[in-house]
Design a protein that fits this description.
The complex is a heterodimer of chains A (279) and B (315). Chain A is mainly α and 279 residues long. Helix content of chain A is 72%, strand content 0%. Chain A is built from eleven helices and no strands. The longest helix of chain A has 37 residues. Chain B contains 14 helices and no strands. Classes of the chains: A mainly alpha (279), B mainly alpha (315).
């Protein structure tokens, strides 16, 4: 453990270990969802609103569907949307930031003002409008969410390009005749990777929250497909009959977002020596 | 100070224009096309669609329509709902006070929870209280608004039966009932914001408490309370202003959810209804209004910051 300080620091952090475990469980649930105990949409109206039992570990919802199975399928939706939406927005955001930072001038000005504009529109509302405009599908939900995240990585990347431009190793690379693109990809990007991974991790958590919110408001994943957000919305209606219906997806969202946030914090602390020991 | 105001305003002008452009572009996405909304009730024929297009002026080029729309907004005409024909301006006048009450109440709750806990944590870092505060802050970030709202409804409306779970009464009609209806929505949004403000307060205070002038104040023999209030808090709370400003953005997002759960007829609910009804004018209006509020608040925070921190003013 002592041989690799970065890994050692991570393993020494109990909150990190616990969060990693939560994320691992969610990932496992998502991957095993095709083998869930029941079909997530299999109705069984004779056994609706049942509490936990040996047959249904978390009970059944208002259509008699197995809550555990639906939670597993919901985990897949949440993680898929969270990770893919953030990956897409970061790919575009990083490219825009590099472009703005390297080209400067009018390109920079236009790109960054556009990012400012995206930044002042509340993300959830923008995602709501785009998701509604494109129509209900998991891909459209991802597109809608990814648009709202582009400004963050673009600003980060551009700032980094401007910051390192005057550093000696970049000047040295330039004096060897390295092209701007090569400098960006070989020298600037790797130096920003840590910051990008930390902010990306935190954004995955936010993306999962936005997906859940969209689905809760009826503009995300539409029933009967299971998503934690729409399960919570449906379960809320029957709260007085079976408390698990809203609580199971609610707690699932809370735990996964909490775990991913803690993971992001732990990564940041492990990478940034200045933050070590401040908490 | 005057120079700072002019400089900041200049930065915001292109942002505002771009926001209007993005908002207007939304209407060109397939499902939000107003023709689709109008056709929804009739059988589709090419002639009818064409007639609607002409009627709405959609046969004109995109940029022409954009500038006409912008011109109307500049004159205060936000248009009418495609679905109900109601005037957007009237809707806003009816709805803004609900969201305003919700926002002001939540900010108050946020500050009342976050600032004392943040200061306590900074004064006693690594104590049990600090640890509890941190746990609270991290949980607050992860708690979705809608789940928090549902938990409160379950506790206070379903189990205890103390509070009504939804509806709205104007404060001047019945202040007591208004308060009873607003307590849970305000708590939902207020606790959500407390987390980030508490963390900011804690780290800002920790930084300030390490400063030389705080040590000097202690060395002069001033009491701990005076050092804290007169010297440390005054500077330590400056960055908190920024976080409270940022909170407003999340609060407006949250209002969409909270107003939906608690059936409050505010701006957030208006936006959600707009989306549910595919009413493009309502969607455009609500996004535009929310973005404008955020821009104005950002501007105010910038200026307030310049006022509070002389270093910003002179750079």
């Amino acid at each position: 453990m002592g041989r690799h300080p970065f890994v050692g620091r991570l393993l020494g952090n109990k909150a990190y270990l616990l969060s990693a475990l939560v994320v691992l469980i969610a990932v496992a649930a998502a991957f095993t969802s095709p083998f869930s105990p029941y079909e997530p949409n299999a109705n069984d109206l004779l056994h609706d609103h049942e509490g936990p039992s040996r047959l249904h570990w978390l009970g059944t919802d208002y259509l008699g569907r197995d809550i555990l199975s639906r939670l597993m399928h919901g985990a897949r939706v949440s993680l898929q949307v969270g990770v893919l939406a953030v990956a897409a927005s970061y790919a575009i955001g990083i490219a825009l930031g590099l472009l703005a930072g390297i080209r400067g001038g009018l390109v920079d000005e236009l790109t960054m003002r556009l990012m400012d504009a995206v930044f002042v529109i509340p993300g959830l509302l923008l995602a709501l409008a785009i998701a509604a405009a494109l129509g209900p599908s998991i891909v459209n939900v991802m597109i809608a969410i990814s648009v709202t995240f582009i400004a963050g990585p673009a600003r980060l990347m551009r700032g980094q390009v401007l910051a390192v431009r005057e550093f000696e190793y970049v000047l040295a690379a330039r004096s060897f005749g390295a092209s701007a693109l090569r400098i960006a990809l070989r020298h600037v990007l790797p130096n920003t990777l840590a910051a990008l991974i930390v902010s990306g991790t935190l954004d995955v958590a936010r993306a999962i929250l936005i997906e859940a919110s969209l689905s809760f408001l009826g503009a995300g994943i539409r029933p009967p497909a299971a998503s934690w957000g729409n399960m919570l919305q449906q379960g809320y209606t029957y709260m007085e009959l079976n408390l698990i219906e809203p609580f199971a997806p609610g707690i699932a969202i809370f735990l996964i977002v909490l775990a991913i946030n803690l993971l992001g914090d732990a990564l940041r602390e492990a990478w940034d020596p200045r933050l070590r020991g401040t908490r | 100070m005057k120079k700072l105001i002019v400089r900041r305003l200049a930065v915001y002008v292109p942002t505002v224009l771009l926001v209007t452009f993005i908002v207007f572009s939304l209407s060109n996405l397939s499902n939000l096309n107003p023709v689709a909304a109008l056709l929804g009730e009739h059988e589709y024929t090419k002639e009818l669609a064409e007639a609607y297009r002409k009627d709405l002026g959609l046969d004109r080029p995109f940029l022409v329509r954009y500038f006409r729309w912008l011109g109307n907004i500049a004159q205060g005409d936000l248009g009418r709902s495609i679905r109900t024909g109601s005037s957007m301006s009237e809707e806003l006048v009816q709805r803004y006070q609900v969201t305003l009450e919700l926002a002001l109440g939540s900010i108050l709750v946020t500050m009342l929870i976050a600032v004392p806990i943040g200061i306590y944590s900074a004064l006693r870092p690594r104590s049990a209280g600090d640890y509890l505060g941190t746990v609270f802050a991290i949980s607050g970030v992860a708690m979705p608004n809608f789940f928090m709202g549902i938990l409160l409804i379950y506790a206070f409306a379903v189990v205890l039966g103390w509070l009504p779970s939804n509806g709205y009464v104007e404060p001047w009609d019945n202040p007591v009932e208004n308060l009873r209806l607003m307590v849970m929505p305000i708590l939902t949004l207020g606790t959500a914001g407390a987390a980030s403000v508490m963390r900011q307060t804690r780290s800002a205070m920790l930084e300030v408490l390490r400063e030389d002038y705080v040590r000097t104040a202690h060395a002069k023999g001033l009491s701990g309370r005076i050092v804290l209030v007169r010297h440390a808090l005054k500077n330590g709370l400056i960055p908190v202003v920024t976080v409270v400003g940022l909170r407003l953005v999340q609060m407006l997002e949250g209002s969409a959810i909270v107003e939906t759960i608690f059936s409050l007829p505010g701006m957030g609910q208006f936006a959600v209804h707009g989306v549910q009804n595919m009413d493009v004018v309502a969607i455009q209006t609500s996004i535009l209004v929310f973005a404008s509020i955020i821009i104005v608040v950002n501007l105010l925070v910038d200026l307030l910051y310049g006022y509070l921190d002389p270093r910003v003013r002179y750079t």
